[in-house]
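Supplementary Data S3. Sequence and structure tokens for construct A.
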Amino acid sequence: MKKLNWQVVSGTELSQLLTQSSLEESGAVGSATVYHLSHDGQEKIAISLPDGQVMLVELGDVNKPRRRRLES
């Protein structure tokens, strides 16, 4: 299972991301705006908050498989 990575970015960074991405869908949720983007072959979710901050969520890279350790 892939992990989700998130970070807080500025409204300016969101603006740049929107111009470089394909907007799949967007909508208002209360006083926030949610954007579903496709950028460099990756899907991302950006949530623009009323205070001007933006939370960007994307799938993290999986470099190696996670394995359980078996006790013997």
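Construct B, processed identically:
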Amino acid sequence: MSLLLPTAMNLCATPSLKPLLTFTVSTGISIALLKHRGWFKEHRSRLASVDNDASAVLSTLLPERRTDRVYCIQATRLHSIIGHALGLGYSRVLELRRHETPGSGVDLGDCVEGILKSTPNTAQDQELSVEKIDAVLREIAAASRFSSPKIRASRQDHGEKYANRALSSIYVQLSARDAKWLTRLILKNYQPVVLEEYTVFSSYHVLLPQLLKVRDDLTITTAFLRHVNQSAGDYNRIISAMKPKLGIKVGRQPWFKGRSIKNCLDMIKGRPVSVEQKIDGEYCQIHIDLSKGYHCIQIFSKSGKDSTNDRAALHSAIRDSLRLGKPDCPLKQGCILEGELVVYSDKSERRKRLVDLITCRKGYAEIVQSQVIACSKRTAAADLREAFAKCITSRGEGIVIKPDAPYFDFSTTQKPYACCNIKLKKEYIQGWGDVGDFAVIGASYDAASAKTYNIPKLKWTHFYIGCLQNRNQVRAGNEQARFVLVNVVEINEILMKTFLAHYSPETIAFEEQDIFEIEPYGAAHTKPPTVVFADPVIFDVRCFSFDKEPNSRYWSMRFPMVSKIHFDRSYIDAITFDELQEAAKTAIETPQQEDNQEMMNWICALKKADPRGLAVDAISQESTSTESTVSSRQHSAEEQRREGNGAAEEDLRLAKPAYARGPPALPAPPTFSVLGPEFARGQSQRIYETRRGTVASAIQASFLRHPQKVPSEAPVIHQLK
């Protein structure tokens, strides 16, 4: 095996001294030959050979996709294995660990390459194939209890410390270049090189991306393709043979973010859709195979990993809602639940089947309400706007817009966004997710993350947000500042360059600092900062909602993002811990009764959120008015934008609660979309019913977490298509 990415990558897929595959990659993330499919075309005959293991090749190109394999090997353990294998002394071990030094600009792979360049292996001309490397990694994963049951079932008894011995025997045979990329392969991180998944799959076989939608398993799908003629005439035969199968995860539909009502309607393109409230929680796909008796439940996570044992607390709720093991169980052989869309039938039929299948029980299983909107009608924008405003005022996370269409469309004449879902949250609308100013009290460094920035000698990659607990006492000079760590954030390259150009903080090692009291409430599960800033900088942060970390009683921001950096503000004026908790409660708590005025304010604000501050349906109406046309010609585009923002300001001010903080020129409406009462958090599932070995239809349901009996991981059953 020979691996090389920043300049070239060679893969020996069979025991041979000649490289099987070669492609050139420019420094960074541009993949020139791979983008033009030249790499696959050049070696098409070798790739199509029956002796080629496509799964091993694709697993090597896209290691992060093998979520079923967990090696339990991080950088710390791996450099110990490498150091022992290469017989490194103390000084060279320090060189191997140079990637841990902030500003070094190298990762563990670079360090391994540097060591082997100075003292190359003597046996690096031995044959190593991709299959052999893949087999070793598979055996290492089989020994981990976190790998999928299928991987663990293939485990062979190799004795203790097999991973150390196996990897050591490989490292002593590799060149410096190959050892670098093997290291990144084991860590499942090729940064800064990024291989686009669709390009890799479609280049390998034109039908592979489509087939993975139905059976999302590299090993099974590539084995099927191995025995299929690649001519165009076999297209229909391949598709007809590939049907959803119990025990194999079905791929997810594409999801897009809606940025405004107009943006959603542009993607819908006049097709009928159903609108549902988005359920906050973890995605699950549940397979029910009645032929397995009592152990008929199998659960896949969003990444594709088998999480049946991890979600054992959900099994009783699933059994009750589907009446499994009871005489009136509606299933004959099995079904697949995924909670978003249902395939192979009209929406009205799908929903009827869902109602017939699911036994609803408050706190355990409920069917999400949906609203059908005919987007070809002139009232579509108003209907969609009203549905979204209702969701906002009820403190919902957002809405999901689903096409009334088949789950997947395999026709050769596909329409844009035809089988895609749209998520619309108010935080997706520009300026509507701002929370406020937060103090950044420290930072840490991660070598892999540093590779994503084109900034030399970068010292910090992660920043720690702290909220002051004793503002009044600090302002009076009576107490030392006491912070609670609530979140850890990363910033993009533009903000990072701004940060480095305008801020040169005095830093103190975290273990040595005594200027602040720091309590790790919200960030207790992460490693502490390596340095503390003596004069904290201020980040303007926005987020999508609030949640509580495991074993924590306090709220922290969910998916926080930094939008601005302020160098002229004091940490004393930033959001305090009490203010953050109050903001979270206000955003989470569902109002006791509907507030019509608040909803009207939100509708007005949504109209102004469309491009140029003009509602999408108002534009068509005004176009018929001569007076409006003349008036619009008298204003420049910039004046229209300013007028739209000015008109929106009052609507947004009325819509937002007191805790929301937004830009002075355009106050933000309520900033958080959370599902309501904490017990109602969950996740959607989709159901495909199987009869006599064929897929008859699909259905959907929603499992909600019961306050006492079902844990927070409980999924919700959602309206499916």
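Residues 252 and 476 are 56 Å apart (CA to CA). The chain has five domains: 9-186, 205-241, 255-425+680-704, 434-588, 596-655.
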